[in-house]
Every structure is written in C-alpha cells, then in structure tokens.
Design brief:
With 338 residues, the chain is an alpha+beta fold. The chain contains six helices and 18 strands. The strands form two sheets. A nine-stranded antiparallel β-sheet has the order 6-2-1-8-9-17-18-7-14, with helices on both faces. Strands 3-5-4-15-16-10-11-13-12 form a nine-stranded antiparallel β-sheet. It is globular.
C-alpha cells in the first residue's frame, strides 16, 4: 500500500513542542497559485518550488496540532529520491563567482545568488529525521521549522528565518533579509548594505510602497549568523494575495537582480537542480496565510542528506568568504549530523 505524503510544521514564535500535522495522497498534483485567494479554505500546508511560484503543491488534510512526541505515531515512512549530482567543488563555486562578476562589469546584472550543495553520505532513517526536526524546533524558536515528504519531491526539512508573506486581518508583512556577517566583531560594510538594498527596492516596488507605509529595520540572528532585516507592513486586498506572492517569489535575496537575467545565470552556472530550495512553503488557515522562503534546508535522500545554501554575489564578493558563509548556513542542520 502506498505511503501517504505528510508535513510537520512548527510556526515561528509557537511552542517548540506543538506541531501541526498535514497529510495527503502519496503523489501531489500541482495547483494554481490562485487558490491562495480562497478565504474559505481549510487549514493546509503549501509548497512552491524554486522559480515556480505560479504553482503550489498542497497537503490538504489537516490532522490537528500535536505534541512533538506524538506526531510520528501513525506516520513512519520517508519518501526518498536519489541525488543526481555530487557535492559542489570549491573550484566550480569560485568559477561561478568570477563569471558573475565579469557579467556585472559587461552587462545589466547587479546581483546574483549562487548556491552550492553538500552531500553527506549519512543514513537518515525515521528516528534520525525526527531528532533533527526536534533539534531545529528547540534551537530556532522564531524560524518556520518543517519536514515534509511526498513521492514526487522526496523528503525536505528546514528552519527558515525569512518570511516571504504574512497576511492577516487585511495587512501583509514582507521581509527583506540579505547581507550576512559571521560574528560580533564584524561591522556592516557597503557590500552587505548594497546586497540588502537590492532586495528592499524590489519589495517596495511589488508593494507599491508609499512613504507613509510602515517599515521596521533591525538585525536578525540565527546561530552565529547576523543578517540585515527590513520588515514592510501594508494594507492589502485579500483577493490580490496570490498575485503578490507570485510577484515576490523568487526575491533578489535568493535569485538576484534583474530577476530574469539572474535566474538564467543560475540555471547555466550552478550545476544542480534547486528543486524546493529557495522556493517557499506556507500554512493557509482560511483568510490567514504565513509563508517563508525555503532556506537553511536539506533534502533527505537514498544517498544520504543534501544540504543547500547560497550567497548574494556582487562586485565586492570574494569566493573564500562566500564559501565560508554558505558553510555556516549549512551548519544550521549540519551541526546535528555526525
């Protein structure tokens, strides 16, 4: 008998011991993004893949909110896929950065986000997966923590710090998160500020931003990483929610700018499929919707576990530092693996 697909979700700010459980058929069929405008929808978990924000994969059977120790009582099967590519070598990553910087000098490319993958050949069974999920819930209370599994996408998990769109009571909240420092001793430079400003400008354009609209600027921390953060809040028509989500994803924080040129560069140079990495996942509860960009994530496969992370590249980027930054982002999950 085929095993069902499932998703376990701990929303930002909620108890680390309380988990939403969703199930559905083993193989998920894509749905149009417009279903997000349905204000009468039951609670459901949605996922949109990288650079595919016109479609959603939906876990539509909400089983309820359970204590962490109870969520696996009736579900104990992970769907797994083989990995198609090996770990990204430093030389390949370095070459991609060099080509990106050269294109920035000669063409209209302001920023591109290059990612890499690291394959760890560790067997991840059900118990290991649930231990990872529990660690992420406890260590990252303000992150969107999830594990989801289906026949067509395999099993993914993550602890994302970046809100894509939060909608509630007629207001949207959108986060601009870009620029990374490694420790307390470092100070924000023009490189990080330029990286963040590209994302902020893009978000303001999507929101038809006015000077009177509300903005909050601060620093966000996850583990040893520090990020520049701007939060935009604005009244928004509920029937235009799906349009806004589609316009925002992927943001320059995970793709680059201009988006079309950056996405083409990524497809040509990265050397692997992002799949669900840098797409978005969310929970819809009637008129309320909370979604995060799928960052600090990994895929559990037949060959081990695949960690993915990316860095914003501009003219000031150095390959050694970007490699170190991506390693620190991978450590959000990797630190719990042997």
């Amino acid at each position: 008998m085929p095993h069902p697909s499932f998703a376990f979700v701990r929303l930002p700010g909620e108890s680390s011991q309380q988990v939403r459980v969703f199930t559905d058929s083993p193989h998920l069929v894509p749905q149009p993004i417009g279903v997000l405008n349905d204000t009468n929808s039951p609670d459901r978990f949605v996922f949109s893949p990288w650079n595919g924000s016109d479609q959603l994969y939906i876990w539509s059977d909400f089983q309820g909110v359970f204590m962490l120790g109870e969520v696996s009582q009736n579900i104990r099967h992970l769907h797994k896929r083989p990995f198609l590519t090996p770990s990204t070598p430093f030389e390949h990553f370095e070459l991609g950065i060099s080509r990106a910087k050269a294109q920035m000098e000669s063409e209209d490319l302001a920023k591109v986000v290059l990612a890499r993958e690291l394959i760890m050949p560790q067997e991840v069974d059900w118990d290991v997966c649930m231990n990872l999920f529990e660690h992420l819930c406890g260590a990252h209370p303000q992150a969107f923590v999830y594990v989801c599994s289906s026949e067509n996408w395999g099993t993914w998990m993550g602890a994302s710090p970046e809100t894509l769109v939060r909608y509630e009571s007629g207001e949207v909240q959108v986060m601009s998160l870009a620029g990374t420092l490694f420790n307390e001793a470092e100070s924000w430079s023009a490189k990080e500020r330029a990286e963040q400003s590209v994302t902020s400008d893009f978000i303001r354009s999507c929101l038809n931003w006015q000077a009177s609209d509300e903005i909050e600027v601060r620093e966000l921390r996850q583990g040893g990483l520090r990020h520049l953060l701007s939060i935009y809040r604005k009244s928004w028509p509920r029937n235009l929610l799906a349009q806004l989500v589609q316009e925002l994803s992927p943001t320059p924080a995970v793709c680059g700018s201009p988006r079309t040129q950056a996405a083409a560069f990524i497809a040509k140079e990265e050397g692997f499929l992002r799949d669900l990495y840098a797409g978005f996942m969310g929970v819809q509860q009637g008129g309320r919707f909370l979604s995060n960009v799928n960052l600090r994530c990994a895929e559990i496969g037949t060959d081990g576990i695949r960690l993915l992370a990316g860095c914003g590249i501009n003219k000031e980027s150095a390959a050694d530092r970007e490699w170190q930054e991506s390693a620190l982002k991978m450590s959000v999950i990797g630190e719990y693996l042997s």
